[in-house]
Automatic annotation (TrEMBL):
The lineage of its organism: Eukaryota, Fungi, Dikarya, Basidiomycota, Agaricomycotina. It comes from Crucibulum laeve. It holds the Pfam family His_Phos_1. It comes from the Eukaryota. GO terms for cellular component: cytosol. SUPFAM superfamilies: Phosphoglycerate mutase-like. InterPro entries: 6Pfruct_kin, His_Pase_superF_clade-1, His_PPase_superfam. GO terms for biological process: fructose 2,6-bisphosphate metabolic process. This is Histidine phosphatase superfamily. One of its GO terms (molecular function) is ATP binding.
Amino acid sequence: LAPDQAKKYYPEDWDRFTKDPHAFRAPRAESYHDLSVRLEPILIELEREQEGLLITGHASVIRCLLAYLIGLPASEIPAIEIARGDLLEV
């Protein structure tokens, strides 16, 4: 949904999302916090890797990985802008 549609059709959820986007969990979905916890074992493996890696994935996953790798606080994860087809090098 586009933001204007979310505001119109789900005003209570939209309000909760805007207050804390990192912790907001939509029905039958996971929050950025949930996703970060789920990615923790992968992050540990990434830190051990000696070679260069190519990681492809959903923008939410890339946001969480990027925030961790560059040291951003978790609260800033939802604000990371990633467009479809972006190539990021860390």
